[in-house]
Amino acid sequence: MDESAWADLKRAALEARANAYAPYSGFAVGAALLGESGRVFTGCNVENASYGATICAERAALAAAVVAGERELRALVIASGAKSPTPPCGICRQCLTELAPGLAIRSYAGDARGDYELASLFPEAFGRGNLD
Predict the structure, then answer these.
(1) Within its chain, how far is the Cα of 94 from the centroid?
(2) Which domain holds residue 99?
(3) Domain with 50 in it: what CATH number?
(4) 71 and 4 Cβ atoms separated by less than 8 Å
(5) For residues 88 and 105, what is the distance between their CA atoms, to the nearest angstrom?
């Protein structure tokens, strides 16, 4: 994927981050997920007083893609206010692996950038094959 496509995803993730609802942690996150169709799906974290009900930005973007009928995913950008780039949490890794085990991921914290591949972040993930 070329750098201009990554830059477009970063802008979309930053715009989504501006809408994050994070009154408890103050940790606002935005995500932009690129589908194989070329469409971009965004999400932001939505915290809840019942912490387990909190939705991460990555899963919000994934849900938006699925609602739109997208099943092939190419790339994900995460934008946070952390001091250093943060990869997706474990629950998000599990959810993303369902549709895109080889997903390319970039995480931004200010000007700092982290590059990841989902399969490397989440080796031996639980999947369909484990349901036998």
Answers:
(1) 11
(2) 3-131
(3) 3.40.140.10
(4) no
(5) 9
Claim: this prediction has a pTM higher than 0.85: yes
Q: What's the total number of domains in the chain? A: 1
Catalytic, out of 15, 58, 72, 124? 58
Alpha helices (runs of H) in the chain, residue ranges in sequence order: 3-17, 57-67, 90-99, 118-121
What is the rounded radius of gyration, in angstroms, for the C-alpha atoms of the chain? 14
pLDDT band at residue 115 using 50, 70 and 90 as cut-offs: very high
- pLDDT category of residue 132 using cuts at 50, 70 and 90: confident
Average pLDDT estimate for 106-120? 96
Residue 124 annotated to the active site: no
CA nearest neighbour of 17 among 28, 32, 27:
28
Quote the tokens at residue 61: 């973007």
